[in-house]
Amino acid sequence: MKRILLAALLSAGLSAAAFGQTVIKFAHDNREDILENPAHAFAGTFKSIVEAESNGQILVEMYPMNQLGSDREHLSMLRKGIIQATLTSSGAMGDSYPRMELIDLPFAFNSSAAAYRVWDGPFGDALAADMEDTLKDIKVLGFPDSGGFYSFTNSKRPITKLEDFEGIRLRTMKVPAQQVMVNSIGAQAYPMSWGELYTGLQRGMVDGQMNPLSTISVAKLYETQKYLTVTNHLFTPYVFSMNKKLYDSINEEEKRIIARATRAATVAGRGVALAIENSKTKGLPYLAKRMKTHTLSQKERERMRAVSQPAVKKMLEEEGDNNMKQLLSVYLSEINKANAQY
């Protein structure tokens, strides 16, 4: 089926080119519902604005729900020019761009507003430039919300303080910074792919995991998890990128349309992410009816930050190259400024 879709999208691109139109084939891994998830809130808004402002000279064809493959495969197809736009998770981007790991610095932000300021400011610009310089064949245009802050769930016991993590086996992405963070708070990190997680929780291979509230809800992880602790310890946005060859081929006005659409779509995605996080049908109120829920106190947040952040920072400084260290310095500086403001 995926081969048929790939052949179809290639022929569609040739047909549009014959009429002088530019086609952006945009793939992502979420449902095609602009109000259900921040990924398509971004993608749908981007498509609408680009097509309207270009008077149909730029067409955005959507391929949601992993129709063409996983987000790792989407990135590979983007770089080869098979598709022209995609949203990439931090974990998938880390395979091609290892410095992405630096964003897994735990307990970095006091609020969503602080996180948005950092990603929209000098750090976001520096990270995008370094990605482009490293990968060569992508144009990074923004960092849309992937679902908000992370929280922990587990099946063993309520977690209200640092000591409660002792001995709990927690699934992480295959990202060393996440593993260091989990081990530093007394839990046991167990790297596992997303596709294996639900079964792993069912079978007791892991006791718990960490994800944004919307992900916990949509994936129905409450069916295998009894306890939810709202920690807001990580914020890892998507990377929105386009194929560089396609981007370089469009004119300056079309690039301004792309930039305006990206900014508006980022705002839309963030709004949907925040709405879902607090909604009665998918957010914290919904989960609180299905799990024993505790919001971490500021005192315990500080205790966890005090043990986890230095551990991850040390790892990044010891294992990262000079570019990683420079980016980390900018990241920390911008985090401090944003937290002071918000």
Automatic annotation (TrEMBL):
Residues 1-20 form the signal peptide. One of its GO terms (biological process) is transmembrane transport. Pfam families: DctP. Its main location: other. Transmembrane segments: none annotated. Keywords: Receptor, Signal, Transport. InterPro entries: DctP_fam, TRAP_DctP, TRAP_DctP_sf. It is found in: Cell envelope. One of its GO terms (cellular component) is outer membrane-bounded periplasmic space. Belongs to the bacterial solute-binding protein 7 family. This is Tripartite ATP-independent transporter DctP family solute receptor.
